[in-house]
Amino acid sequence: MTERCYNFLTVHRPAHAAMMEALARAVGVGPESVDVAHADGDQEGRDWDAPVLCGHHEVTGDVTLSWDVYMHKAPADAPTEPEAALRLAALIGTTVLYPAEGNRPSAYWGAGPDGTVARVRVYERDIPEDDKDTPAKLTVGAAEAYFAQLPAARVMLLPEIYRDELLPVPVADAFAAAVDPGGTAPAESPCNRARECLLLWERLVSRAGSDWALSGRYPLELYLEDLRTRDDLAVRLAAAPPELRGPFVAAAQTLDATFRAATVDDGGRVLADLTGEPVGARGWWWQRRPVRLPWQIV
């Protein structure tokens, strides 16, 4: 057995008894095993030995209640936070938000009562430090899927998700190992600048080559940024010193081959239509489009 913590924000504020019942069922225990109380209320009567402790407090905006749940001596089959959130959403009939991985305060997942699960962006209004009595105001500004209980949230791909993803870059790493095996070159050196260009291009190439795994999506604005990194790579290739040229060109050709295999040549029609700018005079990578356009939300 181990400890487990859950942090939820809910659109609705259920009654105390309903909270206890739903939370118990969501985490797989009986109601008698759950103690629920307002975080700022009287704590004297709490059952601190209960297997599941929940403190809650009010928030305002698009959500109304914050739940802090602690499950000590959780069994091995205790639900994960995403699983518990989805169960809670169905049991209460509300949309449940829970923190996403990473360090962005705005990064959350949403779980709807209809089973919808998607990333959402949450903003908190600044409150003066001397105003301790005003509940936090939380706004769900955007989501990667439509939530009926969050109608004001703009449905869009969230660029920060894809910027934050950690992707392997074996081609760029192999290049760096070949030209700077000790890793001692200055940050501004030609080999490190070359590796940086390769790394950025490889991130797009690996996504395109895997049909945009993990989510199957990728924002258009980031795709265009990545094509501009290939523009920068072309400039670096042309200016590469002799000692870098061979491995630099070989690495770029490897990545370019993968990109060509994952895209089709349409003469730049799709990108010209999307950007409203002609791309015919730009590099060959601007003349191609993904086999499947990953920025389209179905």
Explained architecture:
This protein is of the alpha+beta class. 36% of the residues lie in helices and 22% in strands. The chain is built from 8 helices and 12 strands. Strands 1, 2, 3, 4, 5, 6, 7, 8, 9 and 10 form a 10-stranded mixed beta sheet that branches. The chain has a two-stranded antiparallel ribbon with strand order 11-12. Helix 5 runs antiparallel to helix 6. It is elongated. The model has no long low-confidence stretch (mean pLDDT 93).
The number of distinct β-strands equals 12
Mean pLDDT across every amino acid position? 93
Number of helical stretches of at least 4 residues: 8
Structural class: alpha+beta
Low-confidence stretches: none
Strand content: 15-25%
Largest sheet: 10 strands, mixed
Distance between the termini: 41 Å
Q: What level of helicity do the residues show? A: 25-40%
In sequence order, what are the helices and strands, one letter per element? EHEEEEHEEEEEHHHHHEHE
Rough shape? elongated
Cα-based radius of gyration, to the nearest Å: 25 Å
Compact description:
With 298 residues, this protein is α+β, with helices and mostly antiparallel strands.
List the helices and strands and how they pair.
Layout: E1 2-10, H1 16-27, E2 34-38, E3 52-58, E4 60-61, E5 65-74, H2 81-92, E6 96-99, E7 107-111, E8 117-124, E9 137-143, E10 154-155, H3 159-164, H4 170-179, H5 190-209, H6 220-239, H7 242-261, E11 263-265, H8 269-275, E12 288-290
Helix pairs in contact: 1-2, 4-5, 4-7, 5-6, 5-7
Keywords:
298 residues, alpha+beta, 22% strand
